[in-house]
Amino acid sequence: APATSPPESTRNLTFASRLGGEEGLRECTIRVLEIYKKQCDRDGYFDEAWEASESLRKLKYEQTRVLREEVRRRHAEELRSLQKYIQQQRTEYYRQWEEERLPNLKRAVEDIRESLVRRQALARDELHRKLRKRRYRVAASGKVLDMLARARSLTLREDYGKARLLLGEVEKEDSRSRMEEQAHEEDRVCRLMRELADRQRKERTMVEGKIQDMRQEVLRQQQREFEDLERRAGRKLAALRTKQKKELSEMVRDGPSFEGGRADEATAAPASRTTCFSIIESLVGNKDPTMRAQAKAVSAAEELQDFRREREGQLIIREQAPLLVVSFGQKYSGPNSSKYKIEGKYHIPVNYKAILKWGDDEMVVLTRQGPFGPEFQIIYLPKSTVADDFTLFDWNSNMTQLWDELLTVLETMDEGGTRDMTVFTQGPWYVFGLTEDAVQLELDKVKKKDDTEDLVDGILYCEEPDKPTLEEYQRYLGVQPEVDDHFVWISHEFMNESLPANYYQYTNAGMVYWVNAVTQESTWKHPHYDKYKKMLSAARINRPLPHWKTIMSFQVEFLFSELFNLNDPSKTDFDVPIETVNNVFELARIFKVDIKEEPYLTHVLERALRHYADVVRSKRAVGGVEEFRNLMQRYRDVVQQFEKANELESEQVTSLRQCVECPDDNKEPAVLYCDNCKDMLCQPCFDRLHCKGQRQNHKRTWVELGICAECDSSLAQLHCVQCQDALCYSCYEQIHIRGGRRNHVPIVLRSFSLSMHTIPASSTFAFGAISPAAVTIGSNAARNLAISMSPWVVFEDECEVKV
């Protein structure tokens, strides 16, 4: 060996002391052999140079093989890790569907079916109630009436034998006609029940069809989500394989370079002037990873300083990625607020907005308060002229899933691997600044705003199984107890107002939702939420006193301010419909009027609408609430008097039809009127009283006091031959006022009259000592009551012309 070759033991010891490990020793050996080969070629030792060349070739081959095995092992580990992550995503997807979404769908279907069963049961009960309430009347036929008239005539001629025979035939004919009428009535009831059953069967079929469509839609959604999950997994696998293939091809193409000296031995030229840019350039040129990271952080901070001059915000300087916080927002204060914390100690802000610079690209993160918790959104804005490169991720409550989607997009954009992605290894909470001390300290200072635009519609939570409490309605409406103490009545009104006719309320897992029966759509938003939210905002401005007059005046003013849109200063046209059904219902709610029970007060409400519309148009203070309440009370008193008169008339008519001599607990219908005694008597009592003395010569009149078939309260005074009904004067006029019924021929029946008869000596009439003004027979009390309780009262003059 030549003298220039170093001893083997000395060479191994020197290199082993400088570099540890097999790879370092192999690299040093290669470098020494290269130098040794050059010296042998220069000195003419060709055999030794050839041996060194062979050893060098074997060492390089061994080094390339080791590098390839290491790269393949690393690629296999990355592939297994990605496949494991994809499998975890699939397992989580299946678990979420099996444990959450499908049970929720099943509960919703069960709620819809239970609601349908309850609604149909109520419909059947209502039909049965109407059928039981309907009074069944069987009108006597014309033949029966003629036979009764002949029997009455025979009785007056004292031909009692023929009269009894004729009455027997009348009973047979009447029983036959009654049986026919009863059979007809039973057929009608059966027909109504069949129609109801058919309607309910069609409704059940329609609901089942809707349920089937809902299930199909859920299955389609599940299929779409699964396909989307598989596409994302495929993109990740394809990106990983492309990256690995590119790395292998570059390693094969370039190979390890062993020529020349080390790159870090070169020194930079001295700068004549020290500036910020020269410092950055020197830091970037340095190969130390810490110095390179600091240089990039300084460069990104310089860029964000210019960006901050254009927009308001607070710049947070960090080691790797500076952050511009545009809005700190406020703490999440929804349900289970202690659950939504980062690492159990960092608060998650809502209405938070921050901008992160990654090279020339920007990433914007947004947060908001969702129905179940905080939600996040990320916007990726690369410095590119291609519109498809801009990515807007949807709002998502799962930050992990959103972060994975962002990393997939970033890896796709960085196909060459030239950009530094080490900042993203620390997770989304650090990258977007949610765990920064400056952000957390600012959240402790910021209070939640009261503006309705900053509030997100949430969910009405219900601890009780049936109905939410007042505190839960206040929390749902956004009432602040320390500020809105005088506005508790708004929550009371919100809680007690009935839902629209087509909405039904359900509770699921402590959360209340509403279903529109027409469209079969469910929503978390109360149908009256917007109205009472605006009312609460207006109350915070106007500050009405907690007194019923002030509260009613405020609600009336709020009704017309929303109707006329007074908040718009350019609004000058107030020509909008005032007397509408919805406005009448709203004013009835304000005045605490039940229109179903008191429909006769609608004309008072309509008058109040006209009055208050003029007041609001002229921009005067709303008042006079007490006057309208007094007017309603006076009308209630009038209706109460009519009801009392109607009850007295029914009682007096019943007493008039009964015998005055029979005991009070066993009254018999009166069939005879004594013209001398002036009393109504039954046949046994008349015979008993007029069997002796001068009373044998008293004249008697056969009477048959019937009840009006229409109002069922007044005495019948007319008998319509064509209709075969006994009616009072008012009902006869009302029924026979138009059409062909005007040509019907009535028969005048004998009836009680104060001018012709004396008051019966019964307890109802105070044994004849009652005042004539207290007698309500023939006063048309039932008709007056019906007119007074009608929704719209019509005034007529003496010629029956509407005024």
Automatic annotation (TrEMBL):
Keywords: Coiled coil, Metal-binding, Zinc, Zinc-finger
Single GO MF annotation: zinc ion binding
InterPro entries, per database record: CEBP_ZZ_sf (IPR038446), WW_dom (IPR001202), WW_dom_sf (IPR036020), Znf_B-box (IPR000315)
Top-level taxon of the source organism: Eukaryota
Domain WW: 497-529
Residue ranges occupied by any B box-type domain in the UniProt entry: 657-703, 703-747
One Pfam family it belongs to: ANCHR-like_BBOX
Region feature (Disordered): 248-269
Coiled coil, from the record: 197-239, 625-652
SMART domains: BBOX (SM00336)
Protein name: WW domain-containing protein
Organism: Perkinsus olseni (Perkinsus atlanticus)
